[in-house]
Amino acid sequence: MKINTFEFKNAVSTLAKEVGGAKRVQLHEEDGNLAVEVRGRSVYGKMTIPVTDVAKNEKDVIRVVSMKHLAAICGLLVSDEVAITLREEKDSLLVIKDGESEYKLLVAGKENEVFSGITGEKEFEYSFLPEEWEEFRSKMIPVAGTEESRPQFMGVNFVVKDGEGKAYATNTHMLARMNFSTSDTTERMTNVPRELFAVRSKKDVVKLSAYANVIVAETGDSMFAVQKLIGSLPDCERVIPKRGTTILLNRAAFLAEVRKMLVCENLELSIKPAQIYFREGFLEFYTESGGFGSIRGYMNADVPREYIGQKVAYNAGYLKTLERMDGDEILFSAPFVNESISLTPARFEEKEGSYVFVVTPMRVTNWSLDE
Description:
Shape: elongated
Number of strands: 24
Distance between the termini: 71 Å
Mean pLDDT: 86
Strand content: 35-45%
């Protein structure tokens, strides 16, 4: 069978990345496509790629090979199209032909059956247009926790309450919230693991479903299933500060100053606070490093009277999340505790959209901004 090289390499690399620790990958023909499957202990992933010239004797043939070896071969493929033979004279081989080059991989075993499958009735299903799903991927996953986080934070929590859908992501230092449309009237809170957002779609609706044991995301050419998280989920809405007096910020100008603050951090590979001072008519930015020096920047802003003289420090890397917001202008607000905002979460939000981003300040004991 012949297959597009880019799509094949993308499927293998995506599955290798998202199904962590997978040692084997399964390939077989499925309805005129090559199905590439990885079955881990808690994650199942399948991506399909259209093929041509499928030999009759390759129908219903399953090949399981080493993920490490297949990924290495994919890195060598250069042609736009490669030929894959599932059934060779020797049943212990998978053959990949790339132009004049030929690669033969030893079969690593029989059909991989680690994944236990889907059990129980479907509890719910949410559907997303491709552009809606991509917006979730872009805005929520960068805020979600990683492997070092508790499972409750390693994904996006979908909440339906009073007929409204809201999604939350947090690594406990920053948090994002955005709305989604749903006809679901049952109050529920569901954790959608970050692995499910490996599903991509350019034209097909993405369906997100829950069963007794797994959460599933699928579209026309891919499907991922992850074991359902058992246990309570955090009430993220409680930690989002109420909107206070807002400052209208030019998003591009604000991000330009944030990127300046990141220079010290990137050079020294350690977190450096982006200190912000609220002046009359402008914001002043400052960061410093013992091994580099200091950087100072400014941007114009209509600063309300109660903010003038306030100072706060944030992880500049977290503030880069504002790149993913929509619109030229964003709203900033922070609550005052004992007449200070230096230790209270700040709220950034789209002027027109539903996306809200919350970030916790960093502690800075020796402020370098002149009073």
